[in-house]
């Protein structure tokens, strides 16, 4: 990390700097002689900026943020770890949400309102297909040919798990080849863009332009800022919007989108799991399974229609909530689980985020990993690794077979679940080990998985439930921690949403753990909750009013040196004035409430009045308690360079005021520096990927 402090530079190189500004002296007696510490400001001999007092001016949410653009339609893309989809609504008919047309292909026992998040590139690395089409084409390739093609699935998790995400981060395809993550995400978004525009054009009977569309892309709330920015960059590359027209694209947080949709729920659109009250004729004595079976039947009947009417009213559940009431949204998807606590603000029913989003990689993928671990235990890790490389398409087939059985797991199931092993698995194992799959099962001591003569692994229900256990335990533990926080103690409702929320095992665990604390609600079409909420968010982005800042933001400044308060190695003497370098001047703290559109202002002045190039470096940290830009975990995330040359004719006060503003948007933060005397200004978006 480049850690040059936020100081004005006089425009010369580091080498010539010491010559040109020899007045920066560091008295030998006043530095720690043995310290290997090198101050970024000192090594460059920079002149600096210092706060003008009073510097802490925070103004309220900017009420004049007006919508410059009008769009004909809002299209939301739910880019999921395991499956993805889009939905749209015309701004003239906001009460109708249309879910995308049915996808070709599809699996038995899995509804096709979404498509798998899988992508296939040709051996020349050109986009070939997405979703079922990619999977089926890849599956039909000759095994030797398949090794040349690049097939990727579940790649969204990479953005959550990569600590040092950049524009150059790689993904690994099924054949082991590397490909740029940005390229893959852009291909996927471009595919959705083309599908949606084609469907809109077909429906309208005339060509639909991209400029008519406001796009919304959903991301997990627990993603760090670089991952959110990465998604926006991929969308720009895919042509959904551009940096010049950034407001055409909204990055929505998944639990927020779910929350917005849950407000609209009517009683017939949800299932209540808790023991607190009976809803919709189900008492808590009925099993979860029975309620869900009825709901599934209701969904099956309605599946032919892809248009959902969202009544322009507050749903019955919502009408029970009063000013200040709190509820938790548990968004459990394929890759992550996101927990968000919201509070109602009346009269408009705006949402306020009460507690910083938490969660972790506890999605339904965890169940797949457990299955893979089980296979390694039975057949050997060396074999499974080789099989994945040598027969990548067959491995994909095996995981598809597992997926459909995974969905049949339920707390009260008594009959075994059969998972078909691809022929090439059985064949390759025989070649690899010299004995049969059946022999391996007998020898493995895994007594709850048997071999059936039809070429299937037969798992007892307990064995399948055991695969869910680690992931579900993590979710319950995380929720327990959350419920101990004082802000969360009086929660009225818990909304369980996301694809993994369809799993009866998860529903039962949540009900058992929290059914006596609050009312647990599952929207019926739970896998589409986020998608529909994202459309509603795009139609009315002002519905989310207050968020918690995930990071502390500030700038690096010079302060007057105070003996005993400041560390000696930070002392810098200039023209007889003693300065403390590298001071982190805080704009906003981690976990502080930030209204959408809020402006935070600070005023600074150059430490050297004649300075004409002012460079302001912006820093962020996950810690709240930051004193210096050199503290551990502080990262540079933006630079404002204000060039004031050519303004010498202007009457400039002795203490020139440079006002710095930060505006907190949806997932973007914009910073501006203004020279008050000349009104010259410079803007920058906070950048977490390029520093």
Automatic annotation (TrEMBL):
Job description of the protein: Adapter protein for SORL1, but not SORT1. Delays SORL1 internalization and affects SORL1 subcellular localization.
SUPFAM superfamilies in UniProt: Actin-like ATPase domain (SSF53067)
Record's protein name: Heat shock 70 kDa protein 12A
One Gene Ontology term of the molecular function aspect: ATP binding
InterPro entries to which the protein is assigned, alphabetical: ATPase_NBD, HSPA12A_NBD
Localization annotation: Cytoplasm; Nucleus
CDD domains found in the cross-reference section: ASKHA_NBD_HSP70_HSPA12A
Keywords recorded for this protein, A-Z: Acetylation, ATP-binding, Cytoplasm, Nucleotide-binding, Nucleus
Family affiliation: Belongs to the heat shock protein 70 family.
Assembly and oligomerization: Interacts with SORL1 (via cytosolic C-terminus); this interaction affects SORL1 internalization and subcellular localization.
GO cellular component: cytoplasm; nucleus
